[in-house]
Amino acid sequence: MTSLSAKIQDVFDEPACDKNRGKDAKARKEGCSKPLTPGAAAGGCAFDGAKIVLQPITDVAHLVHAPLACEGNSWDNRGAASSGPTLWRTSFTTDLTELDVVMGQGERKLFKAIREIKEAYAPPAIFVYSTCVTALIGDDIEAVCKRAGEKFGLAVVPVNAPGLAGSKNLGNKLAAEALLEHVIGTVEPDDAGPYDINILGEFNLSGEFWLVKPLLDRLGIRVRACIPGDARYLDVASAHRARAAMVVCSTALINLARKMEERWDIPFFEGSFYGITDTSEALRNIAELLVKKGADPEILARTEALIAEQEAIAWKKLEAYRRRLQGKRVLLNTGGVKSWSVVHALMEIGIEIVGTSVKKSTLEDKERIKQILKDDNHMFEQMAARDLYAMLSEHKADIMLSGGRTQFIALKAKTPWLDINQERQHPYAGYDGMVELVRQIDLAIHNPIWSQVREPAPWDCQPAVKDEPPSTTSGTASLHALKKFAGTMADDFGEC
Ligand code: SF4
């Protein structure tokens, strides 16, 4: 645990993180998140965060060294997509029992599980995750992974991010540290070129990176590694030979980008593929960084030509929606990079933003929102469920865009809702993704179900029947009569 503490301190003191830079030395030492109670984290622990970052590496076997529940909680709870291998979605766990803990069988069981996976699946690598229980009993997963790697001749990567270490975001960063320590730079590619880039923090949710990659292909830009979305182990291992990088979700993997720049001189920028302007800006920035690193400057003109062509196509498709959505009010309850990139995207077609959450946003994210919205009155750190409900039921927004956790608040307030977080069903990245996002907003707002559910229920609309109170004799028949009478009395005072 000592080396884990040192690593946590190191990722908390991230110089590329604005939030961290704004703190004094004492606050920096305290870190960004409170440690969680083992077993009480209900997802969102550091282990969960590490698994989120690494699991989309699709040809790797992900082995969770823990009792069964940790894997059960974290397996496949995001919509990342693979264009090939399916091994990443197979669930592997050492399934430790109380007896294993008491008898000190954890490390032995882990070694055996690695051997079984190697023999049954022959993956290029196995990632081994520590968890609360195995950290507390002191299993040395680093030593077991090293020994197994030597014996079986394959990469066995320890991911030391037990849930009790802290939050999901800390787990994201610890996963990046595992990649830096054990994976990136271990394979030398024989085809490195001046147009190679890395995309960091892109998870390929609902396959949305596939809407962007064809644009890069057309420019002759090769994605050496997209970490982690639809990644292959060897691509990640040779990612150190890319010439430039784009960081998509800055809070998750900023430490990876900064350290890759330090170690391998790979410059990076923060960008987004949500929205037309932001997609164009990202393509421009990629081309400019590549030119700075020695690519032929003619790529700049080709990039501008592609941007002009794609923007024209996208605006033409969006024109049909502009009329239907102009002036519609959106409440955005998400955070991070989406808090500004989606805001910008929606405002591009005349949608009004009545509020955006900045809970997980960096200082830079907040600054961007202020610039886009022209004031910060629409930004909120966190809104209690009760306040969200009040806002929606008073019809202060026509739709809420958020993650699944708050969907029932919108539905209870009889307000359209669209999932834009990790469980979303539709890809929203790139030019085509923006058209799809607007199409889904249009479908949700104009769905005829909303006018129906906002109607009073039929039983609230029955004409009042003036009955005499039934006599209070005992028996079932009298009870029914009383209930009926009570119903008609209520109708008299009802809205209809
Ligand atoms: S690692 Fe710890 S906090 Fe996370 S799911 Fe397992 S027991 Fe719960």
TrEMBL record:
The keyword Metal-binding does not apply. GO terms for molecular function: nitrogenase activity. Pathway: Cofactor biosynthesis; Fe-Mo cofactor biosynthesis. Pfam families: Oxidored_nitro. It comes from the Bacteria. GO terms for biological process: protein-containing complex assembly. Keywords: Nitrogen fixation. InterPro entries: Nase/OxRdtase_comp1, Nase_comp1_CS, NifE, NifE-like. The keyword Ribonucleoprotein does not apply. Residues 45-443 form the Nitrogenase/oxidoreductase component domain. SUPFAM superfamilies: Helical backbone' metal receptor. Belongs to the NifD/NifK/NifE/NifN family. This protein may play a role in the biosynthesis of the prosthetic group of nitrogenase (FeMo cofactor). This is Nitrogenase iron-molybdenum cofactor biosynthesis protein NifE. It comes from Mesorhizobium kowhaii.
